[in-house]
Amino acid sequence: MTDSVVDSILAARYLRKGEKTFEDICHRVAVALARNEGERQEYYEAMHSLRFLPNSPTLMNAGTEIGQLSACFTLYVGDSIPEIFHALEWGALIHKSGGGTGYNFSKIRPEGAPVQSTDGVASGPISFMKVFNAATDVIKQGGRRRGANMGILNVWHPDVLRFIHAKNVEGELSNFNISVMVNDRFMEFVESGQMGKVWITHPYTDEEITVGAIWNGIIDGIWRNGEPGVLFYDEINRKNPTPQLGDIDTTNPCGEQPLLPFESCVLGSINLSKFVSGSAIDEESLKRTVRMAVRFLDAVIDNNVFPIPQIEEATGKTRKVGLGLMGVHDALLMLGLPYDAEEGRRLCERVMALVNDTAVEESHVLAGERGVFPAFEGSVWGEYGMRNAALTTIAPTGTISLLAGCSSGVEPVFSYAYTRKNTVGKTFVMLHPIFEAELRRVVGALGLGSDEVEERVQAVIDHVHETGTVRDIGWLPVSFRRLFQTALDIDWRDHVRMQAVFQRHVHASISKTINMPNAATREEIGEAVLMAWRSGLKGMTIYRTGSREDVVLALKEKKPAEKPEEKPTTRPKELAGRTYLCQSGCCRLYITVNLLGDRPWEVFIRTVGSGGCEANSNALGRAISTGLQNGVPYQKFVKQFAKVNCISALKNPASEGLSCADVVGRCIDLAASKQTITTLDTWEITDVTGKKKNLCPECGAELDFGEGCNQGICKNCGWSGCS
Asked: Which residues form the Ribonucleotide reductase large subunit C-terminal domain (predicted)?
């Protein structure tokens, strides 16, 4: 634990007052959870040796006044204003204490529904999600982690299309992962090609929403920026361990824990790479660690300080824990097994079955010592007494895998060489130790001189650092190139197959990203979702490489460099532009956007026929023009206008925007990007300000995308957009 990056992560996130080392953290946590000296030593050794680590809140808060040890929670969101804002309050308390939250917003009535108490109309679930998102922005989790949310809508909710498109505009709902909860019936229609079948008729607008409209919206969203994710309702509930308590329709932020309302995640991960002995896994040692980990996590429940009483009650009723693995790809590399090889999958299935079965056995033993979980009667366990309703999951391990020095969760390595900044601001290339050792062995065996060996090694490292792959270096042995594939080298089908192998022996679900190349088509993404459903997965996240390169994650804004004073531009006598005839909710509009060079310079808006307000249209055009001529980027108008909703537009299926302002914004964007269209309803906002890398908002390093987190994970400082 001497790496400077690890030291900085410890200082920023885990060390408490008076603590100086990782050993101090392990001691504090072990003392807080152990019932006796034997347990204390066992817990300390498991963490200190990096064979096992609990989730970050336990490392942060065990033995402190905060005492909140769970990683994530699910909260109930009802349809009334009190129910909605109670959920908002509960979420704020959870984020403050260091946890993430999952919500299903499907109980909120759809947009346009009547509200009898006010004689008005409902604004729908997406509008309330924006309120939750804004609240998350102002809370820093426990002073050390920012809030993360999962927002879910059932595929049978009338606002499902608006939900699917809720993150089309850059920056919208930035504190949410969003997922659509689909059922088997919907997927069967997709599988049989019944895309024209009407799935929902909106009860207040009479809009007919087809299977194809929903499916294409989901697939297009995934193709463009990885969202929404997809959750499989029926598979989740086929494996619900306590069906007598109700159906499960909510998960935590990264999707690996489907939970009932108010339940919480108590997570920990075993570092599989620590159990490689020669050419095999030391199964007896692994079993001992599993038994220890089950007792450790069960003790976390008893020592937890829950943020609200409902969570304490629900968690205590089922006593679910989530024991999983990390370092899986490292273990495969040490055993010489490619990640996408059938032999590697067989080993992973054997290991996960062993972990799951051993965990069940230990929970049964604990039940004999301390009693079954309170909701045991009516559960799937029948007469087999259990201390915990569920025991296994595969959680994201972004930060704790950095502490453990191993690969994340069950993910393949994203890159074997990447850039890091050290504490004095210098940058250097970090190498995966197993990769570097094997590379030097392979190159050294070529019979070259020492100088040429170093030149060859450095050439490979430079190539991997630049391209992320070795598969196109022809002089390297085929076996080396086959073994050291990265997440982007591996075919997406093998990603799905590996997730399915683990899912067969996991009680909850799996946080994993299906990586696809930039050239992947929408059709391939559709095939991947269907394959996941057929394979018995409970959910999936897909990331198409480069699809988020226009997203700017900027929590800390740098002061712009001072610019020399610019002379005001004088409008020439003649400007060229475009005029669009559009339909809003209440009228038709002529919208003219004139360009000065390549940028919008002035906007004129006229109403056509009855309806609308000519004076307001005139004023809006003048206001926009004034802003454009005084340096306001046109994209700001486009993005802000996209947030304006008008009930007339929402009720009018012919409207080509959410409001008159939204229609105007779309026309400005079309003119700026010089697109030619016949209708506006299929357009999308384009950012023409230039490509931007996905950079960590805390340290500026490039973000990694994996473990079901499409907000990004930083391998430099440990920042995660999903925890």
From this structure: 70-381, 383-543
